[in-house]
Design goal:
By secondary structure, the chain is α/β, with parallel strands linked by helices. The chain has one domain (24-220): Vaccinia Virus protein VP39 (Rossmann fold, 3-Layer(aba) Sandwich). It has 6 helices and 10 strands; from the N terminus they run βββααβαββαβαβαββ. It has helices spanning 53-60, 70-86, 103-110, 148-158, 182-185, 195-205, and strands at residues 24-29, 32-36, 43-45, 92-96, 114-118, 133-139, 159-168, 191-192, 208-213, 216-220. The strands form 2 sheets. Strands 5-4-6-7-10-9 form a 6-stranded mixed β-sheet, with helices on both faces. Helix 2 packs across helix 3. The protein is globular.
């Protein structure tokens, strides 16, 4: 792949997602160091290169996520359609990281479900984080997590027994093309998941994982026996 192997000295930092303590150097690209976790498969940017909060916010303001844009809705349907097929009757959900144009929430509401919103920049009221839900969606958000282990701990806790955590993020597949991958080039993307990552998390949690479409993972919390 393009970019030299990242230098490494001292103790390897643990995985910021699964907390395994054996991450290894992956690449240095434009003086930015990346590591990978052999346990869960994520590739992640050295936290020293994470964007500042103000810079993140400024970048997100350029996103064009129009609630009524049919192309954006088709994109979100990759997650919405398989999730809706698994929801029995009217359900209560949370769109975590809804952004400035919560189109997914609108689509799920139109299907008869109740959807609360949370986003640290655009819907920062923490009250929805005090409840539990039949489903939690996290679309094009997890790649921005600076502290993914803590974020996924929160997401897990928001899901009721028998409920679903639905995640969509462009899965990383080709190490040889990582340097030129458009998804890596977004300055706010700091962690990159693989399909195997979500299967690994499900095993750690004792949940069930399905990948119904490219870049979509549905994780189900076990229902009470």
């Amino acid at each position: 792949m393009s970019g030299a192997a990242a230098p490494h000295t001292g103790t390897a930092p643990p995985c910021p997602l699964c907390r395994a303590g054996a991450t290894v150097p992956f690449a240095v690209i434009d003086a930015r160091a990346y590591r990978r976790c052999p346990a869960c498969g994520v590739r992640f940017l050295d936290p020293a290169h994470h964007p500042a909060r103000a810079d993140e916010h400024a970048h997100y303001l350029h996103h064009e996520n129009d609630v009524d844009d049919p192309r954006y809705r088709r994109f979100l349907s990759k997650l919405a359609d398989p999730l809706l097929a698994r929801l029995a009757g009217p359900a209560a959900g949370l769109d975590y990281g809804c952004g400035p144009g919560p189109a997914l929430a609108a689509m799920l509401r139109e299907a008869g479900h109740e959807v609360a919103l949370y986003d640290p920049f655009f819907a920062p009221d923490p009250a929805p984080l005090e409840a539990c839900y039949d489903f939690v969606t996290c679309t094009e958000t997890a790649e921005h997590f600076h502290h993914p282990a803590a974020e996924f701990d929160r997401l897990r806790a928001l899901v009721r027994p028998g409920g679903w955590l639905a995640v969509m993020s462009c899965f990383q597949t080709d190490d040889a093309r990582f340097a030129s991958w458009h998804y890596r080039m977004d300055p706010t993307h700091v962690i990159f998941y693989r399909e195997e990552t979500f299967h690994h998390l499900a095993r750690l949690w004792g949940w069930r994982c399905e990948v119904p479409a490219k870049d979509v993972a549905l994780l189900q919390r076990p229902a009470p026996a």
